[in-house]
Amino acid sequence: MTTVERYRTTDPSLAAEALANPSAEEVGRIDAWWRANNYLTVGQIYLQANPLLREPLAPRHIKPRLLGHWGTSPGLSFIYAHVSRLIQHTGQQAIYLAGPGHGGPALVAAGYLEGTYSELYPQVPLSEAGLLKLFRQFSSPGGIPSHASVTTPGSIHEGGELGYVLVHAFGAVMDNPELLAVAVVGDGEAETGALEGSWKGISFLNAARDGAVLPVLHLNGAKIAGPTVLGRKDPAEVRKLLEGHGYQVVEVEGSDLPGMHYRFAAALARAWAEIRAIQQAARSGKGDSARPRWPLIVLRTPKGWTGPHTVDGITVEGTWRAHQVPLSGVRENADHLAMLEKWLRSYRPEELFDSTGAPTALVTEANPRGELRMSASPHANGGLLTKDLDLPDFRGYAVQVAQPGSTRAESTRRLGELLRDIYSRNPDNFRLFCPDETNSNRLGAVFEVSDRAFMERVVPEDVALSRDGRVMEVLSEHSCHGWLEGYTLTGRHGMFATYEAFAMVSASQTVQHGKWLVEGRHLPWRADVPSLNILLTSTAWRNDHNGFSHQGPGLIQTVLTQRGGVSRIYLPPDANCLLSVADHCFRSRSYLNLIVIDKQPQLQWLTIDQAVEHCARGAGIWRWAGTDEGGGDPDVVLACAGDIVTMETVAAAQILAERLPGLRVRVVNVVDLMTLSRPKDHPHGMSSEQFRELFTDTVDVVFAFHGYPGAIHQLVHGRPDADRFHVRGFIEEGTTTTPFDMTVRNRASRYHLVMDAINNTRRTIGGAAEVQRWCQAQLDRHAAYVVEHLQDMPEVLDWSLKGES
Hints:
Layout: H1 3-7, H2 12-20, H3 24-46, H4 73-90, E1 93-98, H5 104-113, H6 116-120, H7 128-137, H8 165-173, E2 179-186, H9 193-198, E3 212-219, H10 229-232, H11 235-244, E4 248-253, H12 259-284, E5 295-300, E6 310-311, E7 314-315, H13 334-345, H14 349-352, H15 361-364, E8 407-410, H16 411-425, E9 430-434, E10 452-453, E11 465-466, E12 472-473, H17 477-489, E13 493-499, H18 507-520, E14 532-537, H19 554-560, E15 567-570, H20 575-587, E16 592-596, E17 601-604, H21 608-617, E18 619-621, E19 636-641, H22 643-659, E20 665-670, H23 688-695, E21 701-705, H24 710-715, E22 725-728, H25 739-745, H26 750-759, H27 768-789, H28 794-797
Parallel strand pairs: 1-2, 2-3, 3-5, 4-5, 9-12, 9-13, 10-11, 13-14, 14-16, 15-16, 19-20, 19-21, 21-22
Antiparallel strand pairs: 6-7, 8-17, 18-20
């Protein structure tokens, strides 16, 4: 029995006692591992040759471009070394999330020292040649990024955009009771709005069924060019701030060695013991109703700890000057070169690496074994743990459609019923994340089977709110989006639903997650994870009451720019199409699925069988809506993508059928936006033959689109005579007005579409001028009517396909 195995116990207090009192031998191993990591970190930044200093350092050994960040790295590796010891003693499953993304070389070095890196990348073996490869690839052409990116084993958080480390950590441990997520928050990151909102995660974490997050606020005092706010605050103020968020704060400060090892070991032991005590009380039913006060460690160390203290007479260690490359002129400056060699040799590499270049036993004995290594944790490669959802048959939630355009329903309400039953059938594998809008977005059926999660005080007036709830509502798009990212990256499924305009609050997170998925597809060892599903409702076209601030379809444009390997955009026109699309998205892997549909009552067009066929094709001709029966090309194509503009398009086709029966009109509806692309531009792109079947090669197309018109022009670029596509969409015209007036202001109303159709028909049709005058008269009448009556004209307000135009 090894010393470590002897300490393993389910009693937190006994394990904590062993953890808090490391032997000198243990501290020696931790320190050796830490020195090895620091050596590898510096080597990655500086060296292109002579990786073990077998000869005196010379300019030719130095990279021509010095990139990367030293300042936060020694603190990150210090914490990592101690968490590894915790794992050795307790068998705790843990993942490590580095909020300071610029500490990437330290996380790469950790994976290398644990052996995981060489297992996944055999071309970087545990040898002198492997060290050379490790150093040369860092932040170099054809190599790896400087952040803890998707290429870094054990990472689910790149940290390239600051602010999200805690939300990713909280999402990772939801419904994951045995997992500990150690989340290092940099003091620069702590200044971001997203991170400031993230501390509230403990208000939603249930110790009985969820894992734990241990935040480590690493205060090294400086950003890239100046001090940090929390680094300069009085420590008592920082402590009060964090205690106000509900944490019990454990503080460690200093730079003295080996004293810091002993102090941090004791702090980590105290934090872990408290976590286990909270969990055991909750899981045994002995806990009280109050929210636990989870531990949080504040670690204060110098920025650039163990690096050059002064350079050219200027203090570097402990200042912002240590943030990136403390010695920048190494190739040209002999003094700097000598300082670099002294710095590297201060870690005593001869003790850390053997004659072959492999880490010595002194170093490797500090590593946990197998999947307990944080760089090898399956929780950080969540596709390995993913279980398919148990999905009900979505057809059972269908709206009955006897005739197109004659029935109204709230489409998202049917999705809510589907989500309710997904919750019931997947009690620990699915969650809905929504910023206080679940009921508003007509998804409230989920509350029939689950409350909202809440660990704070509950009062009798609250509805569907309890500590046992699993519906996640917090008024922060950043938190909801980030929680879902952490949840899916560790192998579970979910959906983020929000108002369309406010999806732009978290749009950069959507972009970053898309980039992660794209890069993950290039790595055979990264297993596919559940897709990130985003539902946008309360859309621009029906936010007439809220006004211009709530009117913006920008996330469509954002997702459209992502690489085709991961981006998917769906615009279901009715409830049955929404159900079919949602089922597909919940079954998919490693995609960024964006679904856009409004929550208000809307006309229903397709039976469930028709919807399934339509969604499978992605786009199709609605023969019943047009007048181009009998073969041959139509005079004009009216195309649409989006629920409101679909109604306007069908209404426009009806007007043309009644008032200009000699015009042959084809109606095309697009539900999968990416089908408009060429196959070489997107996997869903339709073939030239399919495109021709819908749009012909020569006929003008009047396209009514939910989003910004430029998106359609971007998608049909390269198609035959792409200039024949005339797009109407949201053109940033909005205010507090009526629903139909929103389409009028954006020149996408049925009357505008009719006039466009006439203007873009290549043959003369008798009576066309009269119809155009009638349309303009209708628009004039509308403008006066809404001001006088405060609602839309009856023929618009009550329109259906059976009604009068």
